[in-house]
Amino acid sequence: MPAVTTDNLLELPRVPVPDPQASTPRRVRAVTSAPQGFEGEGFPVYRAFAGVSKQALDPFIHMDQMGEVDYAAGEPKGTPWHPHRGFETVTYLIDGTFVHQDSHGGGGVITDGDTQWMTAGSGLLHIETPPESLVMSGGLFHGIQLWVNLPAANKWNPPHYQSIEGPQATLLTTPDGGALIRVIAGEVGEYRGPGSTFTPITMIHATLSPGAQVTLPWNPRFNALAYVLSGRGTVGTDQRPLDAHQLAVFGDGDSLTLAATERPDNRTPNLDVLLLGGQPIREPVFTYGPFVMNTKEEVVQAFEDYQKGKLGVIPANPVPHLGA
Q: Is 41 among the annotated ligand-binding positions?
């Protein structure tokens, strides 16, 4: 799991440790396991938020862990051209390469540790597909796609695209150097990630060595979620077990704790976990397919606008598409 790393963790800034006498640890409210499914042209995913209430997830809507899968030559798959409206898609690629293009002029190549942040807003078409070289060679593919809701006032904003290259992430460690903390968006103490978001959120990819523990300050106005990408550990001060493809939902407070077990699983020596928090929007949400709106009527309108070509057209020079 390369993502972004460093040769010497002890050279990194130390994450601030909350004062145990002045902070309120977040307790774990629930742990859920992600079922497997398929997305796009058939690439395997884990549905990370399955079985969790909208209220607990707000402002997040949906998240897939894509892979981890080691493709043979000719097997890599992507998505066909499809529409979105009313939210932001965040694609964080840990292993492999994806090419993105949208009808609003955004796009590029995302690879190990890069993040593609696309604000669909009022609507667009886009495609995500492996490059021809990866299709020919095969190889490891692993990433995350997260959907972040937009407030009603911002659902009609013009589409926007930002590319966050892996080395742009803010890298931190713990006082003992036992963990690598990649801040992609939001703040951890005085440190801030490069991601710019309409909806205030925090997004962190942390890698903990066996036996390491992390306690992070957390915005008390945000919710808090921890999803294990690989490995085995515990969450909360009561050390609730958390394995690969499981999600922990935290309660209120201003700090959260996680730790890696001394005895990792057979696949990886470390605990890799995605930490998410966001300011709840607390508005009605109606989702269907690729649209996230406030009412059923708005989703119906989105489908009608898509059918009329109002969400954009496929560019004259589109990314080569598998099977096209």
A: no
